[in-house]
Amino acid sequence: MVKIMLVEDDPMIQEFVTYNLEKDGYQVISVDDGRKALDMLQREKPDILILDLMLPGVDGFEICKTIRGDMKNASLPIIILSARDDLADKIVGLELGADDYITKPFSPRELLARIRARLREEKRSAVPKETSLTWGDLEIWPKSYLAAIDGEYISLTGKEFDLLHIFMKRPTQVFSREYLLQKVWGYTITGDTRTVDVHISNLRSKLKGAGQIIQSVRGVGYRLAIDPSKKVIKEVKS
To answer: Quick count: other Cβ atoms within 10 Å of Cβ 6?
Structure first.
């Protein structure tokens, strides 16, 4: 059973979300305090985190930042669920590592759809062997969502890793923002392709010098600007 941690201090919203998630077959762990959530995260090991921003103890932004700095939870899918609907808040949330941002009031059907989309993507990424892709000093392991530069692991969010994986599978191919939004997020947000730009910017920053291989194609999207003949695929039995 998929385990979801819900961090929400409003009792009515917490009850409402928990009811709908449990009705859909998920196991829900509810927490109403940011500091307690960070402590519980280490014990419960949820599959997805639904996170409010305005919390006692530690706010949602700080929780997001802390999780992404911890290699054990760096790839944990995070969906922010907040009444803060300013564009600036959405951008900050995504830049700190959230995979999605839903504003209140919200439809439980939409929340469930976005959770399912993320789970489908993880299921599609599962392969029977541990396969790594390598170019120069950059190497990724799609099954375990790990990435390394010159042998040193780097912390990527699930969405950042998915983007890098798409680029590395088909080097030099240009991908539109709409295509990436559909493939990585699992749904279409009309006119909101800035989500892709924010995640690409974060990915480039984390890749440091290697980030320059992700090239913007004016008016189209992005591609990996490398020599495809240098692609190396390694397979190691699980």
So the answer is: 24
